[in-house]
Design brief:
Elements: H1 2-18, H2 21-24, H3 38-50, H4 56-69, H5 74-80, E1 93-94, E2 97-98, H6 99-113, H7 134-145, H8 168-171
Antiparallel strand pairs: 1-2
Helix pairs in contact: 5-6
């Protein structure tokens, strides 16, 4: 019983520390909080999760840069951009995530959102919708994400339990 009480106290302290606006504004999770449209939240959240390694200020700045390049309307940009709109993206780099990876993400997201209203659909297979576990959903997402022609190097940026990853960033 004492262990449970200690755990509860520990968890309560962590909630007080992390579950407040002052923490969120200095964390990559702040990026999707700029939006109210579900698809904008999904897209910005995916980029925040994928880029969430390294210095938090750099992560946030790079995510903000991407959102500005998308006119702060990522869903609209993904669906309606022209090739000429992609020029700023050609020089993007965040650690090992580079322009090749970014342009593929944009391409995959355009493919996806032209067929679906939500990124949630990429995590579930219609065949097993009710029985999917989190692990199965992450595997399905990875397989789906690379179901169209893709650069091999980009696969390292979407974790999967099939490669024994805990998938911490994508779970964000």
């Amino acid at each position: 019983m004492e262990d449970i009480e200690q755990l509860q106290t520990f968890l309560d302290e962590k909630v007080k520390l992390y579950n407040q606006p002052s923490f969120i504004e200095k964390d990559p999770i702040s990026i999707p909080h700029y939006f109210s449209k579900k698809q904008d939240i999904e897209i910005s959240g995916l980029f925040a999760a994928v880029l969430a390694w390294g210095n938090r200020t750099t992560i946030i700045n790079n995510c903000k840069k991407l959102m500005v390049w998308m006119d702060n309307k990522p869903h609209d940009f993904i669906l309606n951009h022209k090739d000429s709109d992609l020029k700023p993206f050609v020089h993007f780099a965040h650690r090992t995530f580079n322009a090749t990876d970014l342009l593929y993400f944009i391409s995959l997201l355009q493919y996806h959102y032209s067929r679906s209203d939500s990124l949630e659909d990429a995590f579930v297979s219609a065949k097993y919708y009710k029985e999917d576990t989190v692990e199965q959903a992450l595997i399905h997402f990875h397989n789906y994400f690379f179901s169209i022609e893709h650069p091999e190097r980009t696969k390292k940026h979407i974790a999967t339990p099939e490669r024994n990853s805990a998938c911490k960033r994508i779970n964000m």
